[in-house]
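Exercise 4. Each item below gives a protein and its sequence. For each, produce the structure-token representation.

Item: Phytoene dehydrogenase (Gossypium darwinii).
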Amino acid sequence: MSLCGSVSALSLNLQSSKISMGSVLAFRSGESMGNTLRIPFKKRSSKGAACPLQVVCIDYPRPELENTVNFLEAASLSASFRSASRPTKPLKVIIGGAGLAGLSTAKYLADAGHKPILLEARDVLGGKVAAWKDDDGDWYETGLHIFFGAYPNVQNLFGELGINDRLQWKEHSMIFAMPNKPGEFSRFDFPEVLPAPLNGIWAILKNNEMLTWPEKVKFAIGLLPAMLGGQPYVEAQDGLSVKDWMRKQGVPDRVTEEVFIAMSKALNFINPDELSMQCILIALNRFLQEKHGSKMAFLDGNPPERLCMPIVNHIESLGGEVRLNSRIKKIELNEDGTVKSFLLNNGNTIEGDAYVVATPVDIFKLLLPEDWREISYFKKLEKLVGVPVINVHIWFDRKLKNSYDHLLFSRSPLLSVYADMSVTCKEYYNPNQSMLELVFAPAEEWIACSDSEIIDATMKELAKLFPDEISTDQSKAKVVKYHIVKTPRSVYKTVPNCEPYRPLQRSPIQGFYLAGDYTKQKYLASMEGAVLSGKLCAQSIVQDYELLRTLGQRKLTRASIH
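Answer:
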């Protein structure tokens, strides 16, 4: 799910913009932008205050995930790399892109005894989970990232790195704003005493604010085929949009409007009339089958340092390398069409025994060699296109009270999900000022707009969510500063009938592989999907060890002849 992870740190043909009133952080053409506006304000004195505002943050114990089928399956795949026979001559594998897919590929190849060399175009790790620190020492991120209990490969990765304590688990609830009752929220609370799927059913039945009983019954009947048919049924629904599937199953449109607009935007940043129903059913399947599947956690700080660096340290401890500021300019080919080397922007070339591109699909399509374009495996990629998204961070001059220590579904036409990161995240914690991080989606019509236009639109929506605390004219809470990160091409757009176009990690070109959440794996566009794709890519390379050794010997023979 892209809640988790949602937006790409790489974009296409984007020029940096400037704000006359404040300082600007601009990125090179072809990268995401993080723009900031600072508004000077006079800090209010705490002297004479009757009593200071007391903010209480409560993290919950890590749920018991280790006994689920999916967790054990993920753990077994991880263990297979550590227990693999040590190669007589480790493969030198060149990997382009240090997002979670590239980091995962490198980590598990290193576990198997090989030598990955990971190349990142920019000076920051993470790809879709990248983040930057501003001049005040405050972090702003590419997306609002949520770690679900139903992410078995991600949860295994945290355990393998010894950083389980960096996840801040929240209460097992889903909280939705009520547009018809500004400032109010409706909750779906999953009781800990009940197993799945009873805890989810109870949560739905106990909520009487969003759906009527007849609507709940019709929705439950509509879901029966998915619950009984399992994964084969889920995959067969790829051809239908959420809206079309709901109508086909006799589910009232109001169910889509009340619940699934918010869920669709959270999963893939688009509305239910565009999103493939397969995406929704995969999420519901995990949430209903696993007791803690829908339980959420926040990372306790910025992703590059708190998640990506432990992976880098692990890779380097086993002899691998991670190189920043190493942008791939061209994939150079041998006469037989296999990869000869990666040519970098600085003019250097780098050769290996195998090659992986772990960038977003739109970036890879720009690198795709002309000789490969008519090969069916690569030609299908034309159908996969990244979805635009905007991540907004706003710092206020006071603590907002109408919020939770949790992810919130805004149910706004312009906003997807949001959170007060000054409460939910330890590193960003501030008892005196709120920092709201919001996902602005769908963003297609807004991606070219100015930052001031986006902030104005965001403030109008926030005035509805915080009617007693935020107004568009800032006569209530004042905006201290903001950062906006635009990503014109994020995770691939999960529209109907795109599943057949997703490639396997092993390409038809010997020695060349792909990793990324758009490649074939069962968790679609998400952090979990990215990590799993990296594991599957590494598995393919390990399985191809003898073939790759043979290819390497042929290269040596050719070189000696020339």
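Check: The chain has three domains: 74-123+324-385+495-560, 131-190+295-299+386-492, 198-292.
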